[in-house]
Amino acid sequence: MTLAIPLQRKVNALGVLLVLVAVTWVVSVGEAGPPPVKMVVTATAYNSVHGQGQGDDHALAAWGDRLEPGMQAIAVSRDLIPLGLGHNAEVQIEGLPGVWLVKDKMNRRWKHKIDIYMGEDVQAAREWGKRKVTITFAAPEA
C-alpha cells in the first residue's frame, strides 16, 4: 500500500519549511550585529594614590564610579568615547587577561590613549610603562 501525498500539500510543506529557514537566518544575522572594533592605542597605567588624578578623592573616576584595587578598569581619551568606548564599555586589551570596563575618562589633551587602572600597585604601573596595544570592543550601535 502506497500513501500518496497530493502535490499541493508537498508544495505547502516545502513553502513553510523555506519560510522557517529564512526567518531563522534573518533573526540570527540580525543578532550578530557589526563585527568588533580593533584598534591600536597607546596604553599607560595609573593608580588611585595621592599625586595621581585630580582632586582629593583619588579613587573617584570621572563618571562618578569609585575605583577599588582589583577592579579591571580603564580610563579612555575622550576621542575614543564616540567610537564605542563610553562609560562601562567592555574592552579586551592585548597582553592582559579578561574584560576591562571603561570607568574613567582622561584629560582632553590626550588622544588615542587608554590608561589601565592598577589599584595602589605603583610598581606594577611603572613596570607597565607606556606601550602600544591592540584593544577590541563592540562597535557602537547605529
From TrEMBL:
Species of provenance: Alcanivorax sediminis
Put simply, this protein is called: 3D domain-containing protein
